[in-house]
């Protein structure tokens, strides 16, 4: 019996619950990443870094106390508002913590082994802030996409899941496929349909999932992107700028979970 299965047998509720708590804590940090990295990349004044300044209200500069930083709980207790000035705390902060908690709890409950569980958590920890940043800023920072690519290659360098050559081919093929699509679209329309960050993100997903999974990732991203476009267009009739990163991220994590957790189905 592997370690994850043993933990689930001994602690059928405790193991997923502790994983969910861990996910909420990580999600709180990922929210900081999603909020601060764009300003750091664009060198905005006062953007700071991931550690300093400490978490605070951007309006009244009230520094959050320890109890105001408890994932999920603080947002609910405060009613989604700053304790001092009552400025609304963005709902996305709560949602990223909630998603992280649920994701870690559910995957811990069904993961086949420890390496697969850690890999899925690590991939999601990169993809979640990348999706949020691209959604809000149309930006996929190199400081996240490049470490994500190298992490995928290192994971497979230790012999997990894929041969390293498949991961390498996946990275190259992922980048080139969108690069060629970008230039073909630009040649025929005179407009840019994708950004270079999308190339790098698909290269990273190719490193994690292998070249064999790229068609599935691209198809799932395209279909979900089309669905997302029509859904958003029905709510907002103005011209929409659709970020492709969130849909690539969604497709990538779904395909990778399918690969790593295939033995449980």
TrEMBL record:
**Which Pfam families did the record assign?**
A24_N_bact (PF06750), Peptidase_A24 (PF01478)
Q: Where in the cell is it found?
A: Cell inner membrane; Cell membrane
Please verify whether the record's keywords include Iron: no
Q: Which InterPro entries match?
A: Peptidase_A24A_bac, Prepilin_IV_endopep_pep, Prepilin_pept_A24_N, Prepilin_peptidase/N-MTase
Keyword Transmembrane helix on entry:
yes
Where is the chain membrane-spanning? 13-34, 89-108, 114-135, 169-189, 201-232, 244-262
- Segments forming domain Prepilin type IV endopeptidase peptidase: 121-227
User: Topology versus the membrane, per the UniProt entry?
Assistant: Multi-pass membrane protein
Record-level Gene Ontology MF annotations:
hydrolase activity
What this protein catalyses is: Typically cleaves a -Gly-|-Phe- bond to release an N-terminal, basic peptide of 5-8 residues from type IV prepilin, and then N-methylates the new N-terminal amino group, the methyl donor being S-adenosyl-L-methionine
Keywords from the UniProt entry = Cell inner membrane, Cell membrane, Hydrolase, Membrane, Methyltransferase, Multifunctional enzyme, Protease, Transferase, Transmembrane, Transmembrane helix
Chief subcellular location equals: membrane
Query: Where do the Prepilin peptidase A24 N-terminal domain residues begin and end?
Result: 21-109
EC number from the UniProt entry: 2.1.1.-, 3.4.23.43
The role this protein plays is: Plays an essential role in type IV pili and type II pseudopili formation by proteolytically removing the leader sequence from substrate proteins and subsequently monomethylating the alpha-amino group of the newly exposed N-terminal phenylalanine.
- Protein family per UniProt: Belongs to the peptidase A24 family.
Protein name (Swiss-Prot/TrEMBL): Prepilin leader peptidase/N-methyltransferase
The organism is Enterobacter rongchengensis
Classification of source organism: Bacteria, Pseudomonadati, Pseudomonadota, Gammaproteobacteria, Enterobacterales
């Amino acid at each position: 019996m592997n370690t994850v299965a043993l933990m689930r047998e001994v602690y059928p509720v405790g193991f997923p619950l502790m994983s969910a708590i861990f996910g909420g804590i990580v999600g709180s940090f990922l929210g900081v990443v999603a909020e601060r990295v764009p300003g750091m990349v664009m060198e905005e004044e006062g953007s700071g870094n991931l550690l300093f300044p400490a978490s605070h209200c951007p309006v009244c500069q009230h520094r959050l106390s320890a109890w105001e930083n408890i994932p999920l709980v603080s947002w609910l207790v405060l009613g989604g508002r700053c304790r001092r000035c009552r400025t609304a705390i963005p709902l996305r902060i709560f949602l990223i913590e909630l998603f992280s908690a649920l994701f870690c709890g559910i995957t811990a409950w069904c993961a086949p082994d420890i390496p697969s569980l850690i890999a899925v958590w690590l991939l999601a920890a990169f993809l979640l802030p990348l999706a949020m940043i691209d959604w809000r800023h149309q930006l996929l920072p190199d400081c996240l996409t490049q470490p994500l690519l190298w992490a995928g290659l290192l994971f497979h360098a230790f012999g997990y899941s894929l041969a390293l050559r498949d991961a390498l081919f996946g990275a190259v093929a992922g980048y080139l496929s969108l690069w060629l699509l970008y230039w073909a679209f630009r040649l025929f329309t005179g407009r840019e349909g994708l950004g270079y960050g999308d190339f790098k993100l698909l290269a990273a997903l190719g490193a994690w999932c292998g070249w064999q999974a790229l068609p599935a990732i691209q198809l799932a991203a395209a279909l979900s992107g089309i669905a997302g476009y029509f859904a958003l267009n029905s709510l907002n009739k103005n011209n929409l700028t659709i970020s492709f990163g969130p849909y690539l991220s969604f497709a990538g994590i779904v395909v990778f979970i399918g690969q790593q957790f295939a033995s449980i189905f």
